[in-house]
Amino acid sequence: MTADTKDLNALVAEASKVLDAAAEPFLQGHRADSAVAKKGDDFATKVDLAIERQVVDALVKNTGIEVHGEEFGGADLDSPWVWVLDPVDGTFNYAAGSPMAAILLGLLHDGDPVAGLTWLPFIGQRYTAVVGGPLLKNGAPQPRLQHTELTDSVIGIGTFNVESRGRFPGRYRLAVLESLSRVSSRLRMHGATGIDLAYVADGILGGAISFGDHVWDHAAGVALVRAAGGIVTNLAGEEWTPQSRSALAAAPGVHAQMLELLRAVGDPGTY
Fold it and tell me: How confident is the model at residue 92 (pLDDT cuts 50, 70, 90)?
C-alpha cells in the first residue's frame, strides 16, 4: 500500500481501538498531580506521559505510521504521513477534576490533516472523520454544517491573562472578547482547544478562536471541522497549516463574520 493509497477509514478504525485502550488509564488518572513543569504555568501529569507512550507504541505497531506527540516529540511534522497526538487536552481541567478533557489524534499527509479523532472519555463522546466527511459521533454520521449567523451561535474562545504579552497580548484578547460579546452573548471558555474544535464540527459551537500555536491542539479538530463542512484558518484568514500560530474555526457564515470582527479589532501588535 503506497502513501497515496492508504485506506483512511481502516487507519481510523485501528486508531480508534488504540484510543479506546487509552481511555481506561485516562479515566483512572483523573485529578492527577503535575509531573513535569512546562513553559509558563503549564504542566504535564503522569497520565499525559504514560498515555503518550502507550498510544505511540500501539499506533506505530498497528498502523506503521510514526507519531509526533506533545510530550516527547517524535516524527517530523513534514513527514509524508504522521500522527499528531495530544494525550490530555485540557490538562488543567483534567487535574482539577473537570470532565472537559480529551485525547486528540490527527493524521497529517504531507502537512494536510486528512483524519481526526477526538475522545472525551468522561462524557462518552468519540468524534472521528476522514477528509471528505462525514463527521461521526460515536459512530453515527452527523449533519453537515450549514450557513449560520454569528448572532445565533455559541462561540468558544481560549483562556488568557489580560496582562500577558506575546503574539496575541492579553489586552488584544480582551478586545476580541469584548467585540464578540456585542454580537453574541453566548461566549464559552472550555479551556480545551480540541474540544472547542470538535464542538464546532458537531454544530454545538458556531465558531471558536484559538490563540495557541501548538499543532497537537489543532490537527485533529481541523480535520473534524473541515470534514463536517466548516472552515479553519488562522486569525488573519489564511488557510490553517501545521505551522499556523493560531486558529479560527467556524461554520460557513460565522467564519466570515468572525474574521471581519477580528480585522476590526486590529493588529495584535498594537495592544
Answer: confident
186 and 231 share a domain? yes
Last residue of a domain, one of 80, 112, 141: 141
pLDDT at 182 over 80: yes
Binding-site positions read 70, 86, 89, 217
C-alpha cell at 13: 478504525
Q: How far apart are CA 16 and CA 125, in angstroms?
A: 12
User: By C-alpha distance, which of 93, 105, 115, 92 is closest to 23?
Assistant: 105
The DSSP bridge pattern shows strands 81-89 and 67-69 to be parallel
- Average pLDDT for 177-183: 96
Contact 161, 243 (CB under 8 A): no
Task: Out of 102, 122, 141, pick the residue that ends a domain.
Answer: 141
Three cell numbers at 139? 459512530
Strands 155-157, 207-210: pairing is parallel
Which residues sit opposite 83 in a β-bridge?
67, 107
pLDDT in tens, 101-110: 999 999 999 9
Q: Which residues are annotated as a binding site for Mg(2+)?
A: 70, 86, 89, 217
The reply to whether 263 falls in a domain is: yes
Residue 36 CA from chain centroid, whole number: 22
Q: 138 pLDDT band (50/70/90 cuts)?
A: very high
Question: CA 247 to CA 61: how far, in whole Å?
Answer: 32
Q: What is the mean pLDDT of the chain?
A: 92
Are 114 and 218 in a shared domain?
Answer: no
